[in-house]
Amino acid sequence: MDLRTNQSYRRTPDSLTLTEEDVILVQRTHWFSLFAPFLAVIILTSFAIASIIGLYIMQLLTPILTIEALLFILLLTGSGILKICIDWYFHLYVLTTKRIMEVQFTPLFTQDINDILLEQVRCTEVDVRMHGILNQLLDKGDVVLTFDRPTHQEEFSILEISHPQSICRFLVDKLSVGGFMSESPIWFRSQNAKKRLRFSSEIIPKTSFGGI
Amino acid sequence: MKNIIILLLQIFLMFGFLFLGVYNLLYIHEVKKVKSNLRIDMSPLIEKALFFITLIAFIGAIMTLLFLFFR
Question: 10 Å Cβ neighbour count for A147?
């Protein structure tokens, strides 16, 4: 998968970048992360609609009032669903030549920009987390970057993204170009064909009882 | 008693529609602002849907107000 030719990576948040800074990768969370809030909204709407219809059947509401109440609930649901979509759309992970950022804009509510200057830190670990059958099937997971700062260690988590393994490889390639990771061993993919990953059976000669 | 509950519900719905309309109007404005700040393309369908909801909410508020007066 070429990350740069993918549609979702082409939309670059230009205004967030500094001068002489190029955007390398832009990534959103996986679309499946919308499933839980959508389900919650649909269940709540169903309960509300059922109670209004129940009140109408019990003749506590007039037909006009019932229609108005149903319309209000549908509009509320529509607003909620659109808000969830827009919040997802404006939640981005951006890798530039100088920084790695998490940008989260919730229009009318919050604005969060969390960035790490790559020149000021040393990336010591890039981990992939994919737990559960759904994540495996949907190719969804987290990429955790561990930075060794002068004062303390800190993790930068890229949560619930699609193709985490490809993104991880891409990040390692990009972070190692500047020399940040060129000296560090990369456990999941060897750059050198001669130093490919080897199973223990290839290193330790085969004997009975597990080598004892 | 039933009439008072219906009256209160109508008032609640009227303010609910009004709140939804104003909220969505502000939300559209804010979304446009964020979109231009980040310079990110967004489907015009979402903006149209927001505008549609706002319109229906204001129409709903007016209709509820009319029903409240001519009940």
Answer: 19
